[in-house]
Amino acid sequence: MNFLSTLKSIFKLKDLRKRIIIVLILVVIARIFAAIPIPGIDKEQIANYFNNNEAFSLLNIFTGGGLENFSLALMGVGPYITASIIFQLLVVVIPRLEEMQKESEAGRKKINQLTRIATVPLSFLQSFGTITLLKQQQVISNITTYDFILMLVFSTAGTMILMWLGELISEQGIGNGLSIIITIGILSAIPSQIAQTAQSYISGDLKFILGIIGFLIIAVLILVVIIYISEGVRKIPISYTRHIRGGGFGNVGNHLPIKVNAAGVIPIIFAISLIVFPPVIAQFFENAKSAFIADSAVFIKNLFENQIFYGVMYFVLVFGFTFFYTFIIFKPDQIAENLQKQGGFIPGIRPGKETEDYLYIVINRLTLAGAIFLGIIAVLPIVVQNVTDISTLKLGGTSLLIIVSVTLETIRQIRAQIISRTYELS
């Protein structure tokens, strides 16, 4: 199904057309929230601070620009993503939550509700920390206690509204609502980057032109690689013993798909949470009365501002978290057990322990490739900026990965809707 036929089908099918219109309307509302700044804030001063602070630039990705704009949606859907990750980890370590997730749809709804509730205090705490830090760094000043409380209330309410809009998109529209909101936020920053780049161009500057050409070539190559890896799947053949007509049994073929990048963008989110933490906390203690604490804080801040140290740490964290998260969501022992219960087996591999060991080896090899890929994607902005010497255009590998993943998934869902409705009409 090509692009033109997909587009024609969207206009022909009323229900699908309605879903897409709902998505567009809700996305516009979300962007309005992300664009309205909280009163009494110097937006230009905050933007300059964020441009010179790598840690906050990373966080700004997941707020859809709300953090840089210091808008009503200050923290974006970041607190909800954090709460979701926390509960994914808790499901692994708390047997009761694992039972709730497995037993029924009601159990999963209960966990989703707990995630929403946890988002409120997390949003409040993250907003408190962010505003306090910006105030301490004198990025924002002359705010009263009343103004401070209002900012906390606005930002927490903004997060909850964006979360609600995201869930509405998922239920009434197409695709994952929260992912779409984040993606649109990332894309919204591109026009301003292009405008800044155009303003910095000096007539006849050959080095600048070569830098732009190099940037575009790298961007296209990285985009192709991201699509290739994101779509990469290892299909393990599975045979099931089934009763066949006329008596006896026969083998029915199938396969078990394992993605190269099974962990998605989650390891990068984990890594961002950890790598941002030390320099942010250090900034709180730069003006401490104790000389040792103040000097330690300055040392940590300067250490993380070092591009080489920052890049190596970021890569190592992403690499490690890729293995960690993959084996949380993909458990070879459970898959082997389920296959055995269902009468399935991998040709040439004995059911049970041998199947588990085989799956473990396959997943390890695929995860190694996925971990290296995600690590490179994470440190890509640092490399590209040094190669092209252009700071106004930021080729964020994480941003590209999110955009590609969300776009591909949304296209798959649209095509699935078209196929199902075409089948119903026929």
Automatic annotation (TrEMBL):
Keyword vocabulary terms for this entry: Cell membrane, Membrane, Protein transport, Translocation, Transmembrane, Transmembrane helix, Transport
PROSITE patterns linked: SECY_1, SECY_2
Gene3D superfamilies: SecY subunit domain (1.10.3370.10)
Pfam families: SecY
Bilayer topology: Multi-pass membrane protein
Annotated compartments: Cell membrane; Membrane
Keyword Transmembrane helix tagged: yes
TM region positions: 20-41, 72-94, 114-134, 146-165, 177-196, 208-229, 265-285, 308-330, 358-384
Membrane found in the keyword field: yes
Self-association state and partner proteins as the record states: Component of the Sec protein translocase complex. Heterotrimer consisting of SecY, SecE and SecG subunits. The heterotrimers can form oligomers, although 1 heterotrimer is thought to be able to translocate proteins. Interacts with the ribosome. Interacts with SecDF, and other proteins may be involved. Interacts with SecA.
The family this protein is said to belong to: Belongs to the SecY/SEC61-alpha family.
Function: The central subunit of the protein translocation channel SecYEG. Consists of two halves formed by TMs 1-5 and 6-10. These two domains form a lateral gate at the front which open onto the bilayer between TMs 2 and 7, and are clamped together by SecE at the back. The channel is closed by both a pore ring composed of hydrophobic SecY resides and a short helix (helix 2A) on the extracellular side of the membrane which forms a plug. The plug probably moves laterally to allow the channel to open. The ring and the pore may move independently.
PANTHER family: SECY/SEC61-ALPHA FAMILY MEMBER (PTHR10906)
NCBIfam families, alphabetized: 3a0501s007
Record protein name field: Protein translocase subunit SecY
